[in-house]
Every structure is written in structure tokens, then in C-alpha cells.
Design brief:
By secondary structure, the chain is mostly beta strands. It has 3 domains: about 35-150, Immunoglobulins (Immunoglobulin-like); about 155-255, Immunoglobulin-like (Sandwich); about 265-365, Immunoglobulins (Immunoglobulin-like). The chain has 2 helices and 27 strands. The chain has helices spanning about 1-25, 370-395, and strands at about 35-40, 40-50, 55-60, 70-75, 80-85, 90, 100-105, 115-125, 140-150, 155-165, 165-170, 175-180, 190-195, 205-210, 220-225, 235-245, 250-255, 265-270, 275-280, 285-290, 295-305, 310-315, 320, 325-335, 340-350, 355, 360-365. Strands 19, 21, 22, 23, 25, 26 and 27 form a 7-stranded mixed beta sheet that branches. A 5-stranded mixed beta sheet has the order 2-9-8-4-6, with no helix packed on it. Helix 1 (about 1-25) packs antiparallel against helix 2.
Length: about 400
């Protein structure tokens, strides 16, 4: 009779332990109150055309030291006008906010007038994983976006930072500028150049060079064009430069120097990566290249990703023109397939030269440790050992 009572007690304890183990697997880790912010909180787009284009940016931040998933949802009367070229979900943490790009694309049948909408940024559920029993919390914030539709087209742009760089014999003259499209139609800038001799008493040549770029309304971009100088002798020259259709005009000076007198020199300052990443996460690799020479160069990053002494992926960025004295981020991506420590090695190739090799490290995490489950497993094992010990003691 006593043994039956003990057996019933043991059975009840085992069932209770198993129930505790099952429910503990769904216990959420403790969550601190998470706050989310969006800046700017409101934006207005004036004089949009039907079927037109505008773009804006919103920086989303949280006060969590761990990555938090955030989703994007357009709302309001113009929710169908929104487009998010980089996707509608991303991850942020305290020291890694996200800059979200959005497009505003009014339909061709939109009536003139003022319209309003907003973008809702919502965190993923904080507390209980999806599909499990328990409470969960989501935090959200809205950024207001308004727009005025018009049927009047107007062309307006602004050119800044106009520059002509010194060059060598038989090499092109590089002109560069920044263009801000402040109108509501697309802008395709071109450059008109009138070339003068050193005394500015004789026009040598005139040029018209298309930038080859089309700059959308509300956007800013840089242009860089090469002007032929194969028949120019070593000397100082002057150039009257006009950026069309922006109307900006500057008188600039440049030198044509002896071949080889302008040195090509550059440095790969660093390789920026995520210190931590997860399996399957698209991980950026940013090579920061600085042109410390005197000539503009086309630069490209080439490298590889190594794990356990073997190459798992090759990297190669887009080739970009880097002006003297400026820095450029040469970006590529890789997606780790397994947890582990990954080493990124690479160089920047420019002109007929290359930089010293630089490295970056990415630690890829596997499955996260579920401490509540481990604790419950330990308690269950300890409980079973205690029960067996007591049972043997009673039988003796």
C-alpha cells in the first residue's frame, strides 16, 4: 500500500516536471521597455506632378542594445503611393539606427490638391514568440507624409562644388559638380566649357559634354565628366564652365602638367563590417578608400571571405570614380551560411596600382542559447535523481 502511494507520488511528480519542461520552452526572456523613434516626424512634398516622383528618408532608432525587428506599413489616403526600394522590414539597435528610403509615386489620375498619409514603424513582438501562448507587446510610431499635387511643370536645379582638376599631357580634364533637383521634372545636366589661354585673351576651344545622368525630382547627385585635352600643351588654362539647365557659371583655372607629374596614390583606410551577424543575414562589407594622389582615379575593391582557412566567397565592388583628396565607400555583400568566425581580406585596385591588404572580422552566431529551457532541464534531472534516491531509501 505504501509502495503504491510512493509510485503515485513519483508519477505525479514526473508528469508535473514534463509539463513544466514543455511550458518553459515557450517562456520569453525578460524584455525591457523598448522605445522607437522616427526622424523627421513629418515631411511635405510641394508641387508633385501626376505620375511624378519624389523621395525621402526617415531615420528609425530604438533604445535597445539588442537588434529589434521593425516593419514598415504605409497608411492614410496616399498609402498606395508609397514604395520602399530597400524592403519593408529591417533590424535596428541603439548604436545602429536605420535610414529608410521611401518613394512617393502619385498616380496619373490624381486630382490637384493636398493629400496626407503616414508611415507606421512597428517593432516585432516583444515577449512571446509568434504562435505561442502568452502576452506580447509591439511598439510603433508614425511619420507623417503630406503632398500637394499640381499640373504645372517647372524645371529648377542647383549646381554646387564646381571643380576642374589639374591634368597631365594627353589625359582628360575632369570636371565635377553636385546637382540638386529642386523642380518637379527630371533633369539631365550637361556642361558647356569655353577654354581660354593663360592670358585669357584667346578662346582655344568650346565643348558641350553630356553628364550621362538623369536626376529625379527631390534628389541630389554628383556628376563627373571628362573633357579631352590631347592637344593642349603644358601650361595654365582658364575655363568658363556653365552647368545646363541649372544656369550655374564659374570661371575656373587648371594646369596641364608633364606626364607622370601627377602621382597616383591611394589607401584602403579600413574595411567596415558587422561585428556580429546571423546565419543567412545579408552582411555589408564596406571598403573605405581615400585618394591621396593628385589625379582622379577609378577604384574597385576585390577580396575574399575566409573561414577556417578556406575561401568561402569572393567579393568585388562596383568601380567608382574617386576625386583627389576624397574618400569613397566601395560596398559589396556576403551571406554567411554557417556560424563561425569569418575573415574578410582585400585590396583596392586603382589605375595600375593597388593598396596594401586590409582585413575585417565578422562573427556569425548560430542558434541562441535558451537559458530558461536549460534551467528547467537541470531542475527536472535533479528532481528525478532525488525521487530515485528517496525510492531506494524507502525500499531499504
Amino acid at each position: 500500500m505504501r509502495i503504491n502511494t510512493v509510485n503515485k507520488t513519483i508519477t505525479a511528480l514526473i508528469l508535473f516536471s514534463l509539463a513544466l519542461l514543455i511550458t518553459s520552452s515557450s517562456l520569453p526572456p525578460a524584455q525591457a521597455q523598448v522605445g522607437v523613434g522616427a526622424s523627421p516626424s513629418s515631411q511635405h512634398f510641394e508641387n508633385l506632378l501626376r505620375g511624378g516622383y519624389a523621395e525621402g528618408y526617415i531615420t528609425v532608432s530604438v533604445n535597445s542594445d539588442e537588434y529589434i525587428g521593425v516593419s514598415v506599413e504605409p497608411r492614410g489616403d496616399i498609402k498606395e503611393w508609397f514604395s520602399f526600394p530597400d524592403g519593408t522590414s529591417f533590424k535596428v539597435k541603439r548604436d545602429s539606427p536605420a535610414r529608410i528610403k521611401f518613394l512617393l509615386l502619385p498616380p496619373t489620375d490624381a486630382a490637384n490638391g493636398r493629400y496626407a498619409g503616414h508611415i507606421r514603424f512597428s517593432t516585432s513582438s516583444l515577449g512571446t514568440p509568434e504562435g505561442q501562448i502568452g502576452s506580447s507587446v509591439q511598439v510603433g510610431i508614425d511619420a507623417v507624409v503630406t503632398a500637394t499635387i499640381t499640373d504645372q511643370q517647372y524645371l529648377k536645379c542647383r549646381a554646387t562644388s564646381l571643380q576642374l582638376k589639374d591634368t597631365e599631357e594627353s589625359q582628360p580634364i575632369i570636371f565635377s559638380a553636385n546637382i540638386q533637383n529642386e523642380g518637379n521634372v527630371r533633369v539631365r545636366p550637361s556642361v558647356d566649357v569655353t577654354l581660354w589661354n593663360q592670358k585669357q585673351d584667346k578662346i582655344l576651344k568650346t565643348y558641350n559634354v553630356d553628364s550621362g545622368k538623369e536626376i529625379l525630382p527631390t534628389t541630389k547627385d554628383s556628376i563627373s565628366v571628362g573633357i579631352q585635352s590631347s592637344d593642349l600643351k603644358i601650361s595654365q588654362y582658364w575655363a568658363s564652365v556653365t552647368v545646363t539647365p541649372c544656369g550655374e557659371n564659374r570661371l575656373l583655372s587648371f594646369d596641364v602638367r608633364e606626364a607622370g607629374s601627377l602621382s597616383l596614390d591611394g589607401v584602403l583606410k579600413t574595411i567596415i563590417t558587422n561585428i556580429k551577424a546571423e546565419v543567412g543575414e545579408i552582411t555589408p562589407v564596406i571598403a573605405v578608400f581615400q585618394n591621396i594622389g593628385e589625379s582622379a582615379v577609378k577604384a574597385r575593391f576585390k577580396g575574399n571571405v575566409e573561414s577556417s582557412g578556406r575561401i568561402v566567397e569572393l567579393l568585388e565592388s562596383e568601380e567608382l570614380l574617386v576625386q583627389p583628396g576624397s574618400e569613397m565607400n566601395l560596398t559589396t555583400f556576403f551571406t554567411p551560411k554557417e556560424p563561425g568566425r569569418y575573415i574578410i581580406k582585400g585590396r583596392v585596385y586603382y589605375g595600375n596600382k593597388q593598396t596594401f591588404e586590409n582585413t575585417g572580422i565578422v562573427n556569425v552566431l548560430g542558434t541562441k542559447i535558451n537559458y530558461p529551457v536549460i534551467i528547467v532541464y537541470t531542475l527536472v534531472v535533479a528532481l528525478l535523481i532525488f525521487i530515485i534516491f528517496r525510492l531506494r531509501t524507502r525500499r531499504r
